[in-house]
Amino acid sequence: MTATRSRIPGLQRLAQYPRLSIQMMVAGVLITLVFVLAALFAPLLQSWGLIQDPIEALANPIHQAPSAEYWFGTSRQGYDVFSRTLYGSQAALQVVVVATLMSLVVGVPLGMVSGYLGGRLDRVLLFLMDTIYTLPGLLLSVTLAFVVGKGVFNAAIALSIAYVPQYYRVVRNHTVSIKTELFIEAARSMGASTWRVLSKYLFFNVIQSVPVLFTLNAADAVLVLGGLGFLGLGLPEQTPEWGMDLRQALDALPTGIWWTALFPGLALTLLVVGLSLIGEGLNELINPLSRQEG
């Protein structure tokens, strides 16, 4: 049995990783998967009549507490809180995935080119990215939201600009440290073009830390999107979005209407926790310096 297991690729290496990091990743994936399934199946559940329309006011909307008919209760505006919470995961994941992918697609190539070529281009990009990086993410996103307006794609643009410098800095620093390695020098001496060096030799060496950054940025993007929605700057009015629902529930809290704020806030928190657990678990697995000895 031992001999068989030792021949299975990756098992021996996996056994060296801290058990806690594996558990963190599994827990994070399971939590995130719940929201992915909610986002995917919410329209189907509505078409089957199992949940209400999230943007259509109910006939008897006055702050009904959670019950067998309305699992999460209803809001002052007449919306079914359970339906809006499910659809809120759809809005959150759409914006977060688009925003993080856009920032990755822009930041990674810029970091590689800047770190490899150096010179004036590197200095200009470094100054620009450091300037953006010093600005608080929420403040920058709020400012950009005023400029680009509301909507899923516009909110994603506002978020992605704030995350580009993070990918740029990580990838640039790795590129600077790797470009003097012997295998890079050998490739250049054999006449490899800049594009070939970047795509074949550098890319797969500097990309290792990007998955960790991607998941942590995704968790942060959920919070920032919730902040934009709470300020009324994220998605259009009536769109099921947790931050916007929390804003609408704020006035009802002093009167004891707790459910309109609890469930959207809990959903937002759980998704952030799930994505953060994936990021921390990946960091433990990928980064040798963070692994526990023994």
Describe this structure in words.
With 294 residues, this protein is mainly α. It has one domain (20-55, 66-288): Orthogonal Bundle (MetI-like fold), CATH 1.10.3720. The protein has twelve helices and no strands. Helix 3 packs across helix 12 (259-286), helix 4 packs antiparallel against helix 5 (119-134) and helix 6 packs across helix 7 (152-178). The longest helix has 37 residues, at 81-117.
Topology:
Blueprint: H1 2-6, H2 11-15, H3 19-47, H4 81-117, H5 119-134, H6 137-148, H7 152-178, H8 182-189, H9 194-206, H10 210-230, H11 242-249, H12 259-286
Short description:
This protein has 294 residues and is mostly helical. 71% of the residues lie in helices and 0% in strands.
- Give the helix level as a range of percent: over 70%
The CATH superfamily turns out to be: MetI-like
Q: Number of helix segments?
A: 12
CATH topology: MetI-like fold
Structural class: mainly alpha
- Low-pLDDT stretches are 1-12
| Overall geometric form | elongated
Strand content: under 5%
Number of domains: 1
The overall strand count is: 0
Query: How would a crystallographer describe the biggest sheet?
Result: none
* Named CATH architecture: Orthogonal Bundle
Radius of gyration: 23 Å
Quick one: CATH class?
Mainly Alpha
Distance between the termini: 23 Å
Q: Average pLDDT across residues?
A: 84
Q: What's the SSE pattern?
A: HHHHHHHHHHHH
